[in-house]
Write the structure tokens for this entry.
Amino acid sequence: MSSRLDVRKTYKLYIGGKFPRSESGRSYVVTDTKGEFLANASRASRKDARDAVVAARGAFSGWSGATAYNRGQVLYRVAEVMEGRAEQFATEVSAGEGLRLTQARGVVAAAIDRWVWYAGWTDKLSQVVGGTNPVAGPYFDFSIPEPTGVVAILAPQDSSLLGLVSVLAPALAGGNVVVAVSSKRRPLPAITLAEAFATSDVPGGVVNLLTGGAAEIGPWLAEHADVNAIDLTGTVGGSDGAEGADAELARDLEAKAAGTLKRVRRPSVGSPDWAAEPGLSRMTAFLETKTVWHPIGV
Amino acid sequence: MSSSPPTAAVGFEYAPAPESRAIVDLRASYGLFINGEFVDGQGPSFKSISPATEEVLAEVSAADAADVDTAVRAARRAYNGTWSRLAPAERGKYLFRIARIIQERSRELAVLESLDNGKPIRESRDVDVPLMAAHFFYYAGWADKLAYAGYGPDPKPLGVAAQVIPWNFPLLMLAWKIAPALAAGNTVVLKPAETTPLTALLFAEVCQQADLPPGVVNIINGAGNTGRALVEHPDIDKIAFTGSTEVGRQIAISAAGTRKKLTLELGGKAANIIFDDAPIDQAVEGIVNGIFFNQGHVCCAGSRLLVQESVAEEVNSSLRRRLKTLRVGDPLDKNTDVGAINSAEQLARIRELSAIGEEEGAVRWSPPCDLPDRGFWFPPTIFTEVSPAHRIARDEIFGPVLSVLTFRTPDEAVAKANNTPYGLSAGIWSDKGSRILAIASRLRAGVVWANTFNRFDPSSPFGGYKESGYGREGGRHGLAAYLAGVEEE
């Protein structure tokens, strides 16, 4: 038994590349699956969400304007930094999700590999989903994917690291900036992931992570006029309410998002398999197709 | 109807050159097209008039909720019973057939389109109908090649698609909706706009001539209530809407919490940016085409002209000179450039926003222009000294009204161009290739025309950013709107 007292970690929010506490001063207790105290997490407020949107918007032109090669390297760097902290992630995932440490290590490895997978996509997407259009006239006409803009993501409630990475990485790979709300009951890996972002060349504001309730913060993001898209994955299994509450929250947020015609990614039917190879859909959900015409002539 | 040439100022006189309307066999009344047959709707009937003369063209019965249900059931039966079981190559052959019949009956379709809509025959004949046929021809070829479209090895249709289209391009929007839906294996219930129902019913005849199985295409008429009943019907799998941003919002709200797939093509307030190195004469032609094509009833119209300050005077004077040669009048006259405003309601909106433009301090100008006494008419109009805060710089007017703003630097042009909740289209005029590519990449718009404007092609994806809607029509991308599983893992 060591006589040295542990230095505990304070879990805060991640907004604009900084780690503020919630402006509301609120926090909530995070426990492991047996109910044992793990940490206090910041309980993000409406104001925090709005601050995060401002930070994200500010980072959009830089991130979307970076070369695809550069974005790929930055996302790969996230994997590198995570690898070095793998044990810390595994401990948090194990405690939060009730997995044995060896299982949790497998989850962390999959999360790291997911960054590598998406890092490799950044400079291929455009060729796979874009192209030239053989129009019937003397024009050169091409279509390319561009990021939608500020994407609000309600991260999965169950899979607190692999699920989170699986929803963040595709949006970022396409050049979007993100405001994400972590799993409410399992928020700790999200903040540790934020520490990886902060040390891996991801520009401040490109990813913003809020801990707290999707049901509380989601409506503000769904209504926010400077948010271009919303991913409702985390409406499932997180409303802590009665039967049908999840579907009701998803419906309500989708209706709110319609006010500014946001792109909405509805929650999946059934429980997603986060370990499976993702496919393109989470990238293309947050891409716009731009078509450019130019005459051909001498 | 005869309209006197408005162009005496320039001194050109043209003899009237009307296209004969004898090719169109107008019936006194029309109904719905459900399950391969023409039937009467049970809703209140309404009149479809020629906006150029206010002549009643026909009486059309509207679909009530029960008719909508009948149409959806017919589409479902056709989906389950025939269309989804048909070999994809055979599905494609029906679409090829339809494309050919459209070509064969093109003049008839064009004349009726101009009669019912008010657009110049030159446009319906040379743009709308040829593009309509091209769309069917293009998507016909996809029907048996879906596995190569990049949406998985065995992409499936969605089922029954509810499609609601606007009055500005009745036939072309019908083609944009029906061709990809059918190619992907869906069946459809389509509602044309209440001011332009007639050509869709002529298309129904084309479907009959093609021996298209009953129920694959159903056409119902009516106004907003009919549209609402259709998109809110529980047994549809897909909603495709083209129209106003306001109605698009309502549809998106009504689809919330359902599994209905939704694509929206909504309003726009496109910037058409003229740099000082642009070929001015060509740019002026592009400006005119951008805003006066189809009386400006175009969601992607270049309604905000952004001119670099150093050439603003030159562009303005060339533009005014050019406007004096535009011929406004009889849509069926082959020399007509600008036809009738589609409805009294739309004319009122254009007048209201134009009046607000003057009240807010912009300077209004139109060429001398004798407008016909009957019908709905609005002269080509330019507002100068417009500031970005003016309503006419922000709101979609959907008429032949151009707002002119100026800029000094490329950065300012981009900032002004993007300063709108819309993001459908944009134009760039410059002789410098690197500048065109740089500006094109910074504009938040789904279609960017460089040194051209208002070009369309079935192979070219079209659709908006931001509040101009989501989803694309045209090209490989257009198939995604009608295939299952594209959004899923």
Remarks:
- Chain A has a mean pLDDT of 96.
- The first helix of chain A runs from residue 46 to 65.
- The two ends of chain A are 83 Å apart (CA to CA).
